[in-house]
Design brief:
This protein is an all-alpha fold. The chain is built from six helices and no strands. The chain has helices at 3-13, 18-25, 30-37, 46-56, 61-64, 90-116. 20% of the residues are buried.
Length: 125
Amino acid sequence: MSLGQKIKQLRKENKISAEIVGKYIGKPGKQAIYDIEQGRVKNLDLDSINKLCKLFSVDISFFTQENEKANDPSGFYTPGINSSDINVSAEKLAFLLEENRTLWRENALLKKVIIENNIEVTFSK
């Protein structure tokens, strides 16, 4: 799956417009994102990729690796860790994966609202 296909997949799954994604990564206008998704732009700068990772809550390996495990946007792929290293039942793992996906989607939707409404977010201790 190409970089553009991965971006489109995440954008569609999170129901975020190309215009919002472009604005978030500093490439205003939906055409810039469409060009990336269609493969007309072959390389994307690291800063833009990092912003995409933050927006969609995925590890950079999702965009940089070609293997199928890295293509799972659930965020559970960790290089060097095999499923045999984790002692958890299949049912519990399925439950945890679904909970993570739910939180991941809610996080992406919240980011979409923040971006669309130009809300400034500050964190205090």
